TrEMBL record:
Domain CheR-type methyltransferase: 1-256
Keyword Transferase: yes
Organism of provenance: Lysinibacillus zambalensis
Protein name (database record): protein-glutamate O-methyltransferase
Xref: Gene3D superfamilies: Chemotaxis receptor methyltransferase CheR, N-terminal domain, Vaccinia Virus protein VP39
Entry EC no(s): 2.1.1.80
Keyword Methyltransferase: yes
Keywords, ordered alphabetically: Methyltransferase, S-adenosyl-L-methionine, Transferase
Stored InterPro entries: Bact_Chemotaxis_MeTrfase, CheR_C, CheR_MeTrfase, CheR_N, CheR_N_sf, SAM-dependent_MTases_sf
Domain of life: Bacteria
Catalytic activity: L-glutamyl-[protein] + S-adenosyl-L-methionine = [protein]-L-glutamate 5-O-methyl ester + S-adenosyl-L-homocysteine
């Protein structure tokens, strides 16, 4: 067994996270640079250190999960969401059940609230947002972002939904109250059901084909009939019917 395979087994035992389901070359490259930076010679030594040092384990989890996000990322897709997807979903259900999966530092679920607030009162909006990494969930709950994260936010929304604090922007409390953050592992944990919309963007590219297949199958089961999955701009599903999906719009898939 290679030292990386030993590392995978140890991490699965310790955290429940199965690194074998992530693309090996990308994950190895990312983690090798981390252990070398910390002064370890190989994965076995690094694993021993992780088992004894909570801060190092947190840093490892941060490096393993990909926390690059911004508000209204790929702005045209959010226009489609506001003008086409949400109005259609609201025809059959006035209180939508929405899940932002692998939500990272919170830009995505907060963007969902901001878009939906154009169509309905905040008091009727509730988003479930989940991530594997407890550190990014804490950052998401804080809701403070550098200006560059807001580059695609329309100016009226920026004025209405944020408070400026020096060079940073804080999401207003009334927006924050619409989002419930929880820890969730897409590869291990159970999925809730009857969602109207699931948003999972720019994370599937890091998984193996086997893991993607498992997650898309679970997303399909978690959506109600005619519910919609919204994926990232590099994550087109080439065989949507396999998961009982059909294309609703570019990067939007409707459960049939």
């Amino acid at each position: 067994m290679s030292d990386y395979e030993q590392f995978i087994e140890g991490i699965k035992r310790k955290t429940g996270i199965d690194l074998a389901l992530y693309k090996e070359a990308q994950m190895k490259r990312r983690l090798t640079s981390l252990y070398e930076k910390k002064g370890y010679r190989n994965f076995v030594d690094f694993l021993k250190a992780l088992e004894q040092d909570r801060d190092l384990m947190n840093e490892f989890l941060d490096r393993m999960t990909i926390n690059v996000s911004e508000f209204y990322r790929n702005g045209k897709r959010w226009e489609v969401l506001q003008e086409k997807i949400f109005p259609k979903l609201l025809q059959s259900n006035k209180r939508l059940k929405i899940w932002s999966a692998a939500c990272s530092t919170g830009e995505e679920p907060y963007s969902l609230v901001m878009v939906l607030s154009q169509l309905m009162p905040l008091s009727q909006i509730q988003i479930i947002a989940t991530d594997l990494d407890e550190n990014v969930i804490q950052k998401a709950k804080l809701g403070v972002y550098p200006e560059r994260s807001l580059a695609e936010v329309p100016s009226d929304i920026k004025a209405k939904c944020f408070e400026q604090e020096g060079s940073f922007y804080r999401v207003k409390d009334e927006i924050k109250r619409c989002v419930t953050f929880k820890k969730h592992n897409l590869l291990n944990d159970n999925y809730d059901s009857n969602y109207d919309l699931i948003v999972c963007r720019n994370v599937m590219i890091y998984f193996t084909e086997e893991a993607k297949d498992q997650i898309y199958t679970n997303f399909s089961k978690a959506l109600r009939k005619d519910g919609v999955l919204f994926v990232g701009s590099t994550e087109q599903i080439f065989n949507p019917s396999r998961y009982e999906f059909e294309v609703e719009d570019t990067f939007f898939y409707r459960r049939t």
